[in-house]
Amino acid sequence: MATLKLMPEVVLSSRAHPLLKLGRSLHETKGRREQGLFLIEGTNAFGAALEARWPLREVFALESEREWVGKAQSRGLKVHRATREWLGAMCDLQTPPPIVAWGEIPPNTSRLAFGDGLIIVLDGISDPGNVGTIWRAAHALGASAMVCTHGTADVWNPKVVRGAAGSLFALPPLALRDDSPAFLARVFAEQNVDIVRADAHGMTALNEFVWPRRAALVLGHERRGVSDEFQGASVTIPLPGQAESLNVAMAGTIFLWEWARTTVTLGAR
What share of the chain is helix, strand, coil (3-state, %, to 5)? Predict the structure, then answer.
């Protein structure tokens, strides 16, 4: 009886491989839009994507990786083995993660329906690191929705996905066909969602503000502030020190904490 010979597992190593070229294109907004895909790098983000059952197109792992490969295969996902150098070239990181995937970007919508809770609006925040940090804080502190206006960093940018540390999948963005402040402000008015502006020199101190049952907290560009189309309560963080203002990610986290403290009752969780 002839012995069945198993073919050795192919390990991706060539810098000329078309999969590497496509993966590299996902570092750019144009490439992500053309392919409808984004990079998911590392075990935290990959694990969160699996838990959320996010649609995944391709998965790549180091030759030595076993645990996450098993989890991916248990979901019916094919896993490509790759060298450390090959994965490093795709991720553009000095230390490549053990596993990388391509996630599918959800389609845009023009239909929004907001319930109770706190909606976070990122209004022209261009730094990907700040966007990722705010996303993580919003998820941790119980925000109900996340939405971005034009001028905000692409939420599918690898830096945003890494910075959000998996929160992007648990609290996915509302992708709008019309991402103008005017459209979003109109939707809030139609659905009786109160707008709360995070202003550097606002009219009401954050520790004295009474949050409405349904609110949209708008965090604006650090220099330009919140767009004029968002009319509502102007709230500020009192700063007893000499600094003019706070980094937007830090300010957003403080706003979120105060909202959670006064409305969700953190101590009772």
Answer: 35, 20, 40
- The answer to whether 80 and 12 are in contact (CB under 8 A) is yes
For domain 117-268, the CATH architecture is: 3-Layer(aba) Sandwich (3.40)
Select the CATH number that applies to the domain covering 11-104 from these four: 3.90.1150.10, 3.30.1330.30, 3.40.50.2300, 3.40.50.2000: 3.30.1330.30
Check residue 109 and give its pLDDT. 79
- Residue pair 127/153 in contact by the 8 Å Cβ criterion: yes
Higher-confidence position of 242 and 137: 137
Torsion of CA 171, 204, 181, 54, to 10 degrees: 0
Report the SS3 class of residue 254.
helix
Phi, psi (5° rounding) for residue 80? -90, 130
State the burial class of residue 74 (Cβ atoms within 10 Å of its Cβ: 0-12, 13-18, 19+): exposed
Looking at the predicted structure, is the pLDDT value of residue 5 above 50?
no
Helix axes 248-259, 128-140, angle to 10 degrees: 10
Mean pLDDT, range 150-164, rounded to an integer: 95
H/E element, 39: strand 37-41
Ordered by start, the domain boundaries in the chain are 11-104, 117-268
